[in-house]
Amino acid sequence: MYKFIERRRDKQRAVPMQVLALGFSRTGTTSMRIALKKLGYNETNHGFDVWANPLEMEMWTEAINAKFYGKGKLYGRAEWDQLLGDYMAVTDMPHILFAKELIEAYPEAKVILTTRNVDSWWKSYHDTIGSALNSLIRDITVRFDTTNARKAREFWHLASLAMFGTTNVTEEVAKKRYLEYYDEVRSFVPADRLLEYRVGEGWESLCQFLEKGVPTEPFPKTNDTKTFQNHMKRLTVSVWGRLVRQLAMPAFLVCCACFAFYYAGGIRIFI
């Protein structure tokens, strides 16, 4: 099942884990990733990194299966170092599935909870991640894709099931889990180690908490709903474009063969 994990079994932590930004997806986690990099946390692991890295996806899958489905060994500090040893900070999904485990594994790391109004969060989630996961056209698309897209889609379905406990993520289910999650994380972290950062606050509270100077440029704002939707459209077009190119030559050769067969048969009949 796993092709890549063995490459990381003996890996040690290369840099200290300093920040655990454990806000729910669609609470400015992409902007937080950029902000942390600007503040010197140059290696910040985000869901986008997991999406693009089959090895990381396999290890997260192993961790999810162990925690939520009783398959395999639960991850401890050694396994987290193997997976996240090159990173100084983390944010986004699937990291939030292991908030308690990461907080316990890295007691020296500061914890940031990016937050937003639950109704605003649900609308953003529903129009982006929720829509993408429930899209029939994207399910069909990845079935024809020979790249990482199919495995990535399977992985995010698994992660979503682990987070919400159901594939039928209604507004009621999602909002309930959202509020429960924040209460859980608050109970895991001493107050002096935790910053609750509301999306749109700017640099000041974040820099004060992390004891960093305030940058002169505005706080980053990226991956809004429109950007996410456009990205998914481009991904779908890219997959279908690649499929068409892959099928064009075989289709051409089949047509040539059919024409040659028909033409040769026609000659024989005429003779």
UniProtKB/TrEMBL annotation:
Signal peptide: none
InterPro entries xrefs: P-loop_NTPase (IPR027417), Sulfotransfer_4 (IPR040632)
Keywords, sorted A to Z: Hydrolase, Membrane, Transmembrane, Transmembrane helix
Pfam families per the UniProt record, alphabetical: Sulfotransfer_4
TM annotation in the entry: 243-264
GO molecular function, one term: hydrolase activity
Keyword Nuclease: no
Protein known as: P-loop containing nucleoside triphosphate hydrolase protein
Organism: Favolaschia claudopus
Lineage: Eukaryota, Fungi, Dikarya, Basidiomycota, Agaricomycotina
